[in-house]
Design brief:
With 293 residues, the chain is α/β, with parallel strands linked by helices. The chain folds into two domains: 3-203, Alpha-Beta Complex (Spore Coat Polysaccharide Biosynthesis Protein SpsA, Chain A), CATH 3.90.550; 210-286, no CATH class. 44% of the residues lie in helices and 18% in strands. An eight-stranded mixed sheet has the order 3-2-1-4-7-6-8-5, with helices on both faces. Helix 3 links the parallel strand 2 (32-39) and strand 3. The longest helix has 31 residues, at 210-240.
């Protein structure tokens, strides 16, 4: 059966051709079909993707009007995903290493209890610590991972969607798997995720230029939002189970909850956390809502 590859592309006109160009070597001869989800882009990513698709019938484009990765993930799982024995998820700004996709697929075949297979980074200043966290905690990295057909089927059976606006979908999917689709405190189901030694990925390191400074700024904003989302959402899911999963992450930001959050002490974290909390308060005042009971 053909592998299905889901590629999330948000403003990746420069790097997307490299990511697509690496698929054949990464799949190592395995048949595949790639679905590029053009995710609310404001640059020429769509034009680049159209050019790539016109040259390869194995590529299908899906243009989404909203720039939200969790929403794009839901679209793929519930609307786009074809029958396949494995589904590969990767970001359009990374390069899957040679044999990496085939290795992810093989890891799922070798571990029939596993819902997901994680790839490892081979670039970046923090790659060792990053890889160690994946190994020790059985985490998925959102840059490149694989899900089994059973995993997608179980998401659909439970009608379980990721909240709109959620940052760090990989951490949330990891939590769902480790709790065996139940939520709660018991996250000991480590057999549900396998780390694939043969699957690695590369990404372009940031440089000291205006484009990359803006990318780094947006990354720190996203990390700050993710930090507070995890604090609120995971405590809710641990207490009430997956039935407490909100449709929109904004539902969690009540004034009562925000008042209990504090910026992290590191100076750079503090600046972004302070700005994030101020934004949360403004949104909560505009549309107050009651927290789930």
């Amino acid at each position: 059966m053909t592998l299905s590859i889901c590629i999330f592309a948000y403003n990746e006109q420069h790097l997307l051709p490299y990511s697509i160009g690496a698929l054949d070597a990464a799949a190592a001869g395995a048949p595949y079909h790639a679905h590029i989800l053009i995710n609310g882009c404001t640059d020429d990513t769509l034009l680049v993707a159209k050019s790539l698709a016109s040259a390869d019938p194995r590529i299908t484009l899906h243009e989404l009007p909203i720039s939200d990765k969790a929403n794009a993930w839901n679209e793929y799982v519930f609307r786009i995903a074809p029958d396949a024995h494995a589904h590969i998820f990767l970001d359009g700004d990374i390069i899957p290493s040679v044999n990496s996709i085939a290795a992810l697929d093989q890891s799922l075949q070798d571990n029939p209890c596993a819902y997901g297979a994680a790839a490892l980074p081979v670039t970046g200043r923090s790659q060792r610590k990053w890889a160690e966290r994946l190994y020790v905690n059985q985490y998925l990295s959102g840059n490149l991972y694989a899900l089994s057909a059973d995993a997608l089927s179980t998401f659909c059976q439970h009608n379980l969607r990721l909240p709109f606006g959620a940052k760090g979908e990989d951490g949330l999917i990891t939590y769902i798997f480790l709790t065996n689709f139940l939520g709660g405190e018991d996250d000991s189901h480590h057999d549900r995720i396998v780390v694939s030694d043969g699957a690695t990925f590369e990404f372009e390191s940031l440089r000291l230029n205006w484009r990359d400074v803006k990318i780094y700024h947006r990354r720190l904003q996203r990390y700050s939002e993710r930090h507070f989302q995890k604090s609120i959402l995971y405590s809710l899911l641990k207490k009430h189970g997956l039935k407490a999963m909100p449709d929109n992450i904004g539902e969690l930001y009540t004034l009562e909850r925000i008042a209990q959050l504090r910026p992290r002490p590191h100076p750079l974290d503090f600046i972004y956390d302070w700005s994030t909390l101020r934004t949360f308060r403004s949104k909560a005042l505009e549309s107050p809502s009651e927290p789930p009971r």
